[in-house]
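Dear H.,

Thanks for agreeing to be a second pair of eyes. The structure we're designing against is below in token form, covering all 91 positions.
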């Protein structure tokens, strides 16, 4: 079994604004994110794999040094907040 670090279906209901406001209609909770966080979340909602998100961020934001770490930390944060969970799939 292969583990995917998040489930895009969990994230599709989230409402995102250009100003960084994130609303979860399932729980009523709201969050804020910076521009990079919104870009990561939008890519996650589209179902992109973490490595594809890293490549996109490097293109959009001039490739920061810790892009991989930033994406991994963001994935961990959305799991901790209960916004998504890891899923197991066949290889």
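And this is the sequence the design step returned. I haven't edited it by hand at all.
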């Amino acid at each position: 079994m292969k583990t995917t670090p998040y489930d895009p279906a969990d994230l599709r209901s989230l409402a995102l604004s250009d100003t960084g406001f994130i609303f979860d209609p399932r729980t009523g909770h709201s969050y804020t994110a910076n521009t990079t966080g919104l870009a990561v979340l939008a890519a996650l909602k589209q179902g992109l794999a973490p490595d594809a998100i890293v490549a996109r961020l490097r293109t959009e934001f001039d490739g920061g040094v810790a892009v991989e770490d930033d994406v991994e930390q963001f994935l961990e944060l959305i799991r901790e907040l209960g916004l998504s969970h890891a899923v197991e799939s066949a290889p």
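Two observations from my side: The radius of gyration is 13 Å. The mean pLDDT is 84.

Warmly,
E.
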